Amino acid sequence: SRDYPENEARAQAEYLLAELSLELGNASSDTAIAKAHHAEALQGFSNLVSSFPDSEYAPKSQFNKALMLEKIGQIDQACEEYVKLSYKYPGNPLVADTIARLGKYFITKCKELKDQLAVEEDAVKRKQLAWKLDESYITAAEVYGRLSERFPKHRLASKTLLLSGKAYLKVKDFKRSKKQFMAVINGDRSEKNLVAEAMYWCGLMYAKQAEEEILKKRPATTMLDAFRIWKRLNWNYPETKWAKYARGKLGDDAFISAVQELQEDK
Predict the structure, then answer these.
(1) How many CA within 13 A on the CB side of residue 65?
(2) DSSP sequence for 91-157
(3) Mean pLDDT, to the nearest integer, of 75-100?
(4) Contact (CB, 8 A) for 208 and 169
(5) 2: pLDDT strictly greater than 70
(6) pTM
(7) Is the pLDDT of residue 1 over 70?
(8) How many DSSP H helices and E strands does the chain contain?
(9) How far apart are the first and last CA of the chain?
(10) What's the rounded Cα separation, in Å, for the pair 127 and 259?
(11) Separation CA 33–CA 227 (nearest Å)
């Protein structure tokens, strides 16, 4: 852009025009007019990316193009455009937001698969759907996990780590789930509610791990880990809703009995 300043000026003008169309579309109460403005904005962002790929406005345009496609419900196409941003401009800060959006895309796929699974009666198709569902959760977990690796100081780093841990928990990958939850718990303590949420889910992960051990006729020692982290959550962040949920778990008669039995065996 420094070698061709006139190109950068043209790119800036294209970007501002596309942004103006976007704002006009967002401001209009007339559906037809809003749709027309949004179509103009989408075309403008697309043209800029293809005509001025090296401009500083190209990554912003690529991101806005994907965002608009997502907004109008073209989720698969939006996903493709987010991926393009990641490999065309890997060092751009917008890649972090792109990773978060891609994670959300795969979680949306999981919800769709769960809905299909709920109504599917054929045993073979159910098995195929269940496999696809697990694969989608793993993909979502891996995608979310990349954000904190590449952008550890980003505002969404802790949140996406938490979402990664929850996705791993869905497929009972307790080891990787714990890793993500503990990274949040031991990370930025200023995000108190997020830390509290991670503590709650980490406790639930331990409890689910214990349930798996019980099914295998093995000692469910992780139940004590659940007890400890929920107690700690209640002590450190008593005002949060997550501590309230933890108190509910700690007050469950079956849970109390299981913990007492484990403590007596020690």
Answers:
(1) 23
(2) TSTHHHHHHHHHHHHHHHHHHHHHHHHHH---HHHHHHHHHHHHHHHHHHHHHHHHHHHH-TTSTTH
(3) 90
(4) yes
(5) no
(6) 0.84
(7) no
(8) 12, 0
(9) 69
(10) 35
(11) 57
